[in-house]
Specification:
Elements (H helix, E strand, L loop, with lengths): L11 H6 L1 H31 L7 H19 L5 H22 L6 H13 L4 H23 L1 H51 L7 E2 H13 L6 E8 L2 H8 L1 H18 L21 E6 L2 E7 L3 H16 L3 E3 L2 E3 L4 E7 L7 H17 L5 E5 L1
Parallel strand pairs: 1-3, 7-8
Antiparallel strand pairs: 2-4, 2-7, 3-4, 5-6
Helix pairs in contact: 2-3, 2-4, 3-4, 4-5, 4-6, 5-7, 6-7, 9-10, 10-11
GO molecular function: diguanylate cyclase activity; kinase activity
Protein name: Histidine kinase
InterPro entries: Diguanylate_Cyclase (IPR050469), GGDEF_dom (IPR000160), Nucleotide_cyclase (IPR029787), Rev_trsase/Diguanyl_cyclase (IPR043128)
């Protein structure tokens, strides 16, 4: 039951959907708190060494060192972010409890301020926050009764209870607004990803479209840094007859299967993560694209033409083994023709290079003994 509750009474799935932003906020707020606490306790430690409340030296020195250690753990990601958050909160509140308990007549100002501060800064589900705050409140009250006596303990109980309730209310209000902001940010990021997919990728096959591939190709022409790049043009054999005989849905399925084989056997790193498109560099990366219809382009790196041909043979074997079945229509033994050009940094224009590869592909189609043709540019 508690799993289904978050701060503002909606589905726990909403909280989970914002988890990346929640963790980022936790890390930011915890680091801010730990840095502030380490500086404050360092100043108090120095003042104590100089003679001000000398007996409180360890009260200031220990939290100073602890906050520095926790800040390091958080910055270096040495542990779960939420665990470090709770350790930081505990350190802060225990410091306030000890500070108020040292002197029987000491007002528990530090604890009361800190419980409200943690309520504002930190994010977790409401049920977790309630349990944690009241556990700390129980420690505070027990310590107060033990060190200060019943009368002061009752004052601290009343004040601590009120401030804990205020902290929880503030937690609910502040974090609700944060969660709404996180949800809006998630929706914005999703829409941006969708726009990128539409701009860069072919909607049917899921691989790059012509314009995005040609842009990458022009970049490698403008700034060449490799000599092992092979550019290929691939065309399905008898694709028109497949569409005419079995229907366009079968033809579409053949396109999708070929795109999947291309990504698998040509090792395209962005295949399952389209956001990596903006980091692709054809000087080092492989890429595949659909020009339209049954025509595809690819760019791969291979140490030799023989190894490039071996890649293509694996690709052909993969595609020929596919069985396409749509609405009872079954197609097997699919083939393609492929022309490949070993790019030697001797073109200044992507379109001219594309036209040359296109010509090699048509030469490959005329061959009867092999479906692949690899040439030097």
């Amino acid at each position: 039951m508690f799993e289904k509750i978050n701060y503002y009474g909606q589905s726990y799935d909403v909280y989970k959907a914002c988890r990346p932003q929640v963790l980022a906020s936790i890390q930011k707020n915890t680091l801010f708190l730990l840095k502030t606490m380490s500086v404050a306790t360092a100043v108090l430690t120095i003042l104590s060494l100089l003679g001000l409340h000398r007996s409180y030296l360890f009260l200031y020195l220990v939290p100073c060192l602890c906050s520095l250690v926790l800040a390091w753990l958080l910055r270096e990601r040495k542990g779960p972010v939420k665990a470090v958050m709770y350790l930081a909160m505990t350190l802060l509140l225990v410091f306030g409890i000890i500070d108020s308990a040292i002197d029987p007549h000491h007002v528990a100002t530090a604890y009361l301020v800190f419980i409200v501060l943690t309520g504002i800064l930190f994010i977790d589900t409401m049920i977790n926050t309630i349990i944690y705050d009241f556990l700390i409140f129980a420690v505070f009250v027990g310590t107060s009764f033990y060190f200060k006596g019943a009368q002061i303990g009752l004052y601290d109980f009343f004040n601590g209870f009120i401030f804990t309730i205020v902290a929880l209310i503030l937690h609910n209000l502040v974090q609700k607004d944060k969660m709404v902001s996180f949800l809006i940010l998630n929706k914005y990021n999703e829409s941006q990803e969708q726009l990128k997919m539409q701009a860069y990728f072919d909607s049917l096959s899921g691989i790059l479209n012509r314009s995005s591939f040609m842009k990458l190709l022009q970049q490698v022409i403008d700034e060449p840094h490799c000599d092992d790049l092979y550019l290929g043009f691939l065309d399905l054999d008898h694709f028109k007859s497949i569409n005419d005989t079995y229907g366009h849905r079968v033809g579409d399925a053949a396109i999708v299967e070929l795109a999947a084989c291309l990504n698998k056997h040509l090792v395209v790193r962005y295949a399952h993560n389209p956001s990596l498109y903006e980091t692709i560099d054809l000087n080092t990366d492989n890429a595949t694209a659909r020009l339209g219809g049954d025509e595809f382009l690819f760019a791969i790196h291979a140490p030799s033409a023989a190894i490039c041909e071996a890649y293509l043979q694996e690709l052909a074997d993969c595609y020929e083994s596919k069985i396409i079945e749509v609405n009872g229509q079954v197609v097997t033994n699919l083939h393609f023709s492929c022309g490949v050009l070993h790019y030697n940094n001797n073109y200044q224009d992507a379109d001219a290079l594309y036209q040359q590869v296109d010509q090699v592909m048509y030469e490959a189609k005329k061959q009867k003994d092999t479906r692949f043709l690899i040439k030097e540019s």
